[in-house]
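Hi Y.,

Following your request, here is the sequence exactly as I used it, all 163 residues.
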Amino acid sequence: MDGPRARLRINLAEREFEVEGSEAFVKAYAERFDALLARLDERGAAEPEAASEPRPAPARAPASAQGAETFGELLHHLPRSASDVDRILLAGHFAQRRGPDASFSTGEANELLTEQGIKVGNPSQCVKQNLIAKRVFKHLRRYRVSQTGVDHLRQLLGGAFPG
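Below is the corresponding structure, written out as tokens. Let me know if you'd prefer a different format.
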């Protein structure tokens, strides 16, 4: 073994990076990260001046969505590993929150995704899989997202989940 083991861990809001090895190996990375963080600090200090121009407020969901983000913003928070079943569940939850009867149809969920440029191969099958997993349940020929479904979305979206 070529010396004591050392570890360098950087979190930067959970994007995390970890280097482990000999002290010399880790020290080489530590110096690179010090330089990188110094550059980021310099940029961060320069940004507020550039950001002083007023920006238009983003379009928001209707008031009936209880102040939630737009569907596109919410969809953007899904991890890349999310499946079509997860996307349909999120779209259904969003449609349910803004609908008058607190339910959604397969067509409504699919339309939200289509508006965002996402083509789901078989939306009915995705809803059926959510039914089997008990993430949604039938309600008067429509669907509602169950507590299990809400918990699943909360796990996928973390702090971005509105409900």
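The chain is about 50% helix and 10% strand.

Thanks again,
Q.
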